[in-house]
Amino acid sequence: MQIYSYFCAVKKLEHIIHPVAAELQQFEVFFGQTLRAETTPMDSIMRYVSETKGKRLRPILVLFSAKMFGEPNEKTLRAATFAEMVHSATLIHDDVVDNANLRRGQASVKAHFGNLPAVLAGDYLFSKAMLLLSHPDDYAMLQEMLQTAATMSEGELMQNAAIRSLSLSKGRSNDIYFDIITRKTALLMRSCCAVGALSVKATPEQVQQISDFGLSFGQLFQMRDDILDADNAETLAFAQELVPAHLQKTLDSLQIFPNSEIRDALEQLTWFCAEREL
Predict the structure, then answer these.
(1) Residue 84 pLDDT
(2) Cα–Cα distance between 207 and 227 in angstroms, integer?
(3) 251 burial via Cβ count (<10 Å: 0-12, 13-18, 19+)
(4) How far apart are CA 123 and CA 247, in angstroms?
(5) What is the rounded radius of gyration, in angstroms, for the C-alpha atoms of the chain?
(6) Cα separations (Å) of 37 from 44, 48, 151, 194?
(7) Which residues of 30-69 are buried (b: 16+ CB within 10 A; e: fewer)?
């Protein structure tokens, strides 16, 4: 396939997610309800988090993966909400560490409420997320997500160490870069696909197949992020070098699935990811 010949056909995100639009609305309601806190200070922060939403790519991956093999259900909604809560928590903590005042074009939680409330809000989100999947029937999904959350922390530390030591230079650095983006971003998207499939009782083989797509998709997503936001010339160069072949690899990983509306949507989502500007 000549990969760049297809760019003109890429749809907008709202059109791509049409097959799971109803389930995504259910997610938004459930997510908002789950974020509610018993105390006014925390509830104010949680409402702010709910209102400053991003693209919802992680819940979308959970829903698409569930629908690839069955019908999304309450377990699927819990898994999608867990994923978004963990993602939100890491962003809040990242903004404290990076002293970032903006997130998605608005004041970050750290800037709006302060450092201490932001740290506690991130901790609150992690704790509430774990409660969501505390039922014995959800153990496989919880284990998948917790292992990923631990690895994400390692990825952030690796990135920090690489930046401080300026170790991202030619040679071994390409491998370091790939390892960092896998740990800090791609593994969560892989887990989103895994838990989506697990929520509808997909076979182990099916879970592995959709997880492979999720991992490759997540790597591609972070490469595109680095092209858009890189403040390091070498990181930008690595990402630009890797994107074309990795885009093809991600598309190829979907070919194992039968033709369907969901497979087509995931292909479109991959193209959207590769050429997005935000």
Answers:
(1) 97
(2) 30
(3) buried
(4) 35
(5) 18
(6) 8, 12, 28, 29
(7) bbbebbeeeeeebeebbebbbebeeebbbbbbbbbbbbbb
- CATH number at 21-275: 1.10.600.10
Task: Kindly report the backbone phi and psi dihedral angles of residue 259, in degrees, each rounded to the nearest multiple of 5, phi listed first.
Answer: -60, 130
Tell me the two tokens of residue 108. 């970050």
Phi and psi dihedrals of 103, rounded to 5?
-145, 120
Does the predicted model carry a pTM greater than 0.85? yes
Which H or E element spans position 106? Answer: strand 106-107
Average pLDDT over residues 23-42: 96
CB atoms within 10 A of CB 271: 19
pLDDT above 60: residue 168:
no
Structure tokens at 86: 């963990």
For residue 274, the SS3 value is helix
Q: Closest by alpha carbon to 63, among 84, 44, 46, 43?
A: 84
Q: Where are the domains of the chain?
A: 21-275
**Looking up tokens 């006014």, which residue turns up?**
40
Taking alpha carbons only, the member of 274, 161, 181 closest to residue 235 is 181
3-class state of residue 107 by DSSP = strand
Cβ atoms 222, 185 nearer than 8 A: yes
In tens, the pLDDT along 204-249 reads: 999 999 999 999 999 999 999 989 886 667 778 888 888 999 999 9
* Burial class (CB within 10 angstroms; exposed 0-12, middle 13-18, buried 19+) of 154: middle
Could you tell me the CA-to-CA distances from 76 to 23, 64, 65, 142, 239 in Å, in that order? 9, 10, 10, 12, 33
* 8-state DSSP, 102: E
